[in-house]
Design brief:
The chain is an alpha/beta fold. The protein has eight helices and 15 strands. The relative contact order is 0.13.
Length: 376
């Protein structure tokens, strides 16, 4: 019953494109005379954004939120051969659409990867299609074996990447957890999560920047929401996903952001953490690591919007202390910014922002970045 409700609600958001069977789908009859063209996962005809893992086999793994693949072709249809270790939701953008009009669900198929329809019935002509991973690493990695187009691949039509680059580091707020939930009180399902409509995704679009979202629900800078201290964000930050960051490390020299926005602390306080020294030390150590990887980046320590009352006051104080500590040690290029809290909560932790609230946060952060860094 829950699955039927989830699918019904999902269809109210998007035109859904899914495959429920594993293995290659049958090639549909084509009356136009076009032929299917296979594009392997490592083809230079694919424009990939996000941290990549090519080392696992005959596939590419994209795990973090907002990772994407773009392909250009002349034809009428596109399919992707994919798999996941749990579930992955992909937004589909056709020919420069600002908002997705369809979503692809990739499942953990028992028989291996499935070939899933992405778009079909397009006008026979040039098209650019982007598949954007809107769900987070926690709920599943996206394995890409390749794509196939009904028509001809056109590498020359691929768009260029934005010159500006922002790395967002955070927890569920940055992931867009529950940002699409239709009503309060509904149990979380990955279908309601959207990094595209999170404050991070919307800020990146406002500023025309390529974004890497290194975010994971429930994780903190010093302690996670469940009280554990394993795989906190500073540990996961060095990997290509949350499942095996220590095994599959990321080479930070491959992508240098202009700005790193760190929004951590909510889960530390939600866990009941009250050790200010440990929190400040963990933050200071994490920022030092980031500075060593990206010496020219501007680093922004962000707070909000879910904390309130005493939790919020403490978090802001601890972040101010961390910033002052680093600056006293000679580090430059550090900044602080606060997102407006979402009212008062008896628990000190407010519900996750929905799409419209995330937009307000994005507008606030975007305006500050434009003013502070001259990003017109």
């Amino acid at each position: 019953m829950k699955n039927l409700l989830v699918m019904a609600l999902l269809c109210s958001f998007y035109l859904v494109s899914c495959s429920n069977s594993a293995g290659d789908s049958e090639i549909p009859e084509d009356v136009s005379g076009l032929e299917w063209t296979w594009v392997p996962y490592d083809s230079d005809a694919l424009l990939v954004s996000g941290r990549t893992n090519y080392g696992g086999g005959d596939f590419l793994i994209l795990s973090w939120s907002a990772s994407s693949i773009t392909i250009a072709f002349e034809g009428t249809a596109l399919e992707v051969k994919s798999w996941t270790n749990y579930v992955a939701y992909l937004d589909v953008f056709v020919d420069g659409e600002e908002d997705p009009t369809s979503v692809v669900k990739v499942s953990n198929y028992a028989d291996g990867p499935a070939t899933i329809p992405v778009v079909s019935g397009l006008r026979d002509g040039p098209h650019v299609v982007t598949l954007y991973k809107r769900s987070e690493s926690n709920v599943g990695d996206w394995y890409v074996y390749g794509l196939r187009v009904l028509g001809e691949v056109r590498k020359d039509l691929l768009p260029g990447k934005p010159e500006r680059k922002i790395e967002f580091v955070g927890n569920s707020i940055t992931c867009g957890y529950d940002v699409l939930v239709p009503m309060v009180g509904i149990e979380f399902d990955p279908v309601y999560e959207s990094s595209y409509y999170s404050y991070a995704g919307q800020t990146a679009r406002n500023l025309d920047a390529e974004a890497h979202l290194i975010c994971s629900s429930g994780h903190g800078v010093y302690v996670n929401v469940d009280g554990s201290r394993e795989l906190t964000l500073p540990v996961a930050y060095n990997g290509t996903g949350t499942h095996s960051p220590a095994v599959v490390g990321w080479d930070h020299s491959l992508w240098h952001p202009d700005i790193v926005v760190i929004n951590l602390g909510t889960n530390d306080f939600a866990s009941g953490m009250n050790d200010s020294a440990q929190f400040v030390n963990a933050t200071v150590g994490f920022v030092r690591d980031i500075r060593s990887y990206h010496p020219d980046a501007k680093i922004v320590l962000l707070d909000g919007p879910m904390l309130s009352d005493d939790y919020l006051a403490k978090c802001r104080t601890y972040l101010d202390v961390a910033k002052a500590t680093l600056e006293n040690d000679g580090m430059n290029g550090l900044y602080r910014f606060s997102l407006e809290p979402r009212g008062d909560s008896p628990f000190g932790i407010n519900p996750h922002p929905v799409k419209e609230e995330a937009l307000e946060d994005a507008e606030s952060l975007s305006a500050w970045i434009r003013s502070e860094f001259g990003w017109d």
